[in-house]
Request: fold
Amino acid sequence: MKRACVLAVSAWLASAAWAQSPAPAKDERRTAAPRVVRDAALEARVDALLRRMTLEEKLGQLQQLDGEADGRFRPEHLELARAGRLGSTLNVRGAAQVNELQKAAVEGSRLKVPVLFGFDVIHGYRTVFPIPLAEAASFDPELAEATARAAAAESAAVGLKWTFAPMVDVARDPRWGRVSEGAGEDPYLGSVMARARVRGFQGDDVSREDRVIATAKHWVAYGAAEAGRDYNTTDVSERALREIHFPPFEAAVDAGVGTFMSAFNDVDGTPATANRFTLTRVLREEWGFDGFVVSDYTSVLELIKHGIAADEAEAARKALTAGVDVEMVSRTFAQRLPDLVRSGGVPVATIDQAVRRILRLKIRAGIFERPYVDAGREQTALLTPESRQLARRAAARSMVLLRNEGGLLPLRKDLRTLAVVGPLADDRKAVIGAWSGDGKAEDAVSILAGIQAALGASVPVVHAKGCEIEGGGDEGFAAAVEAAKQADAVVLVVGEAAEMSGEAASRSVIDLPGRQLDLVRAVHAAGKPTVVLLVTGRPLTFPWIAENVPAVLLAWQGGTEAGSAAADVLFGDTNPGGKLPITFPRSVGQVPIYYAHKRTGRPPAEDKWNSKYLDVPVTPQFPFGHGLSYTTFELSGLTLGGTGITASGTLPVQVTVRNTGSRAGDEVVQVYVTDVAASVTRPVKQLRAFERVSLAPGESKTLAFTLGPRDLGLLDARFRWTVEPGEFRITAATSSEGGLTEAFTLR
Ligand code: NOJ
Reply:
């Protein structure tokens, strides 16, 4: 074991305020809010406003209410806005609705504080981009930033100034439907994507007309719901919180995210919506978060059902004093806090602190100066040719080629006939996925339509649905097999309906639903070159397909331009370069399965007394980081900047990647770190850097990465950030399996 050497670099210090942790010496904790920089003029403005507010007006700022699903506000919202008792809304949108309600607030109320209009813009507003899990597969943060920027511009044009995105929950259970909304299983990739999305939504100046405030959600460990069942409880150690679940949230804070959303779930005995440790100790005191925290939908009221509050008053008190500033939909703050303040149960200073945070952000967002939206922009800003083009590029860059035996893909465009079969081939709703904002299925290009457009009139495309997505029988199989027989090649489009992932959409079995696997087998038996194209919001299990169908292309839920992008990839106009951001298991019984697992004293081996299954290999079907291309790449020359560095030094890593095939293509070079022996157990490997590069045939490029203490360190047994001397291995690879490895010693 290594000798610990504790780094005196305050930015890396993690505190140990968790009840069970042995308390570190005081000077090892971060006790100040390090990132807060206050603007005196802004503070004076906030204070002046606050001094004039009645308790009811203050509580009004803490209240967020829901509009109608179609974007209209409810009649009572007008009254509340005029009384200064409506701080924000969700779902109210559209210039006319926003302007009318805003007018009640800024012209009809005593203090003229504008309403903040929020909405779930998760992967696009009207132009729908690929689901966030798919975009993570692009390993291209600039792309994620660009789609978030475009989504912000569309949202702002309809009067929104706040999105409840990005979801940065690390998710390692594909049964959980919300894996589709995040960046997958890895804290590092999740952090890179979190930063990119926050930058995309907010830009450098969130007051700009085309920007919206972002929300890091769901704070925290919501992705660890037991058994992958949405809203279920969690049991997560402080180590897992700090090493796995916290990093993308901290990255969002670093990127200047405006708001956090507290999660529905329990975190070690205290639900996230009443958890002082996560909401105040970590978020405010360790990280210096300066924005505000909104609860999740009715999650304050749900503290009663969690069994930690006897009534609404106790729920309100616990949530507010723990660090929730805005209550979404339930009204315990507005209704119960007045009595609590009178009885001394809640200090008015706690309410003032929440109001300050809200007013500060409203001022920074520029809505005092520009409360209204220009109705004209709504007509011109949505679904522009540029945003459709971006959606097409994003969808194509997100696709992952899982298998391509014999180089079946790309297909030639001069086929005599192509069969496009399957229940998802002509489905425009499935491709836009869950949480698709105000995206409309009728705007979307189905996979079939994309293929037809690419082939033009000269190549007949025979389409047969074959079966339903779920349920139904095999009556359609014969026509599907017949279509395959007539064709030179078959594209089988199978997967999940939009509503099978997203919120409240957990599945206990993650096979292809309904009769789809039987359809694939029947069509494959026709003996034609067969491609399976998967439309899905989560990893699925499909071992028979993975072993028998020569080509499998993961298209995810690609958004408005999914079909055009699928055709770009199928016919080789775009060479796929995406990589899996989440492990694809062979069977649901392997879950949780992820690459950065801890070691065991009995690693899998042939003999009996080792960690494995009797009925399935321990390896996944497709590992994290996996993804093929129509060309081939070779890594060589992995060199570390010396064989030893000091704990505070940096380690230069170089590796050369060469396109050894005959087509231009992209490779994602991934750098993993293994700490061979440490004072606490470490994952077998951890992604610490990556770069997606485009190379012409024969071209090679030497990539340079720099690993620092943050990449090599760990939280010791007392949760102090530490870099321990000893041996490390650095692997450069094109997937989390395999690659080139070099060792070095940290002194
Ligand atoms: C509940 C979801 O958990 C959250 O992600 C979403 O932002 C809110 N509802 C508002 O729609």
Observations:
- The radius of gyration is 26 Å.
- The chain is about 30% helix and 15% strand.
- The pocket of 1-deoxynojirimycin is lined by residues 90, 120, 164, 217, 296-297, 503 (CB under 6 Å).
- The first strand starts at residue 63 and ends at 66.
